[in-house]
Amino acid sequence: MKFVEEVVVESVLPTVRSLLAEALADRGRTQREVADLLGISQSAVSKYVHGEIDRNERVQSDDRVVALVEELADGLANGEISQVQALVELEVLIRQLERGDLIAELHTEAMPALADADADFTDVHDPESRLRQTERVRGSVRRGLSRLEHTAGFGAAVPQVGSNLVECLPAAADLADVCGVPGRIFEVGGRAVVPDDPEFGVSEHVASILLAARSAGHPARAALNVRYEPALLDRLDSTGATAVAFDPEADRDAAIAAALADDPDADVLYQTGAFGIEPILYVLGADASAVADRVASFV
User: Fold this and answer.
1) How many beta carbons lie within 10 A of that of residue 258, not counting itself?
2) Tens digits of per-residue pLDDT, 207-216?
3) Which domains does the chain have, with CATH numbers?
């Protein structure tokens, strides 16, 4: 695991400092004066000036870095720029280079797994960044799946079409914003089998039910489907859940909206089947772990 801050400390700061120390020396400042201006030791300045510190070639050749170093060297040398202003200007440039730019590229090279993430590594310090949200949702689904895999009896509750545990992003707009199990969860030898790690955009069936419920005003962020049986519905009722039925042959979104209009607080949707349609229970909840816990309490 490689933090973007490590890339900054290891590759960017030494390069920028050495360029700035060299530029100040070229403007007639002594090593002592350069050390005072940059807030570093004189021995460090000596290493920078004499090329004893490795520079990152891509950083030192970046036009924006070169331009800012020249501007700051002029200002620091003649006293028109304070140390604080110089620091602020460098911080602004570094934050800019982190957002899908040079530092982001260096970070991805140092940690190739970032290239496989389904969100850009931008605005990473934002607590509401998409990357953070997607990874938190993926982790929630993993925890829910682990709970189900260790729940005796869950395998028997998996319907013929398979189950899926899904969770969506807070502002989900479509199936690409819903995380689930690729290929669905199937029962093999009485046990539930999760074929692969959760991904976004891989569930159509259960994700569509969840999105339809949310479109109707339901606050759920997660859902799981299990087979429908009156006995399961009775046991579910004993957990304090509220279930409402919808017509599986009607338009899905309209049918779910109509069912929830009768009971907006319902946390279970179900349909009892039709020709070619398997009867299914859909358990809704705040997150994948909460849904898995509820299902584990009645299967």
Assistant:
1) 15
2) 999 999 999 9
3) 4-116 (no CATH), 130-296 (3.40.225.10)
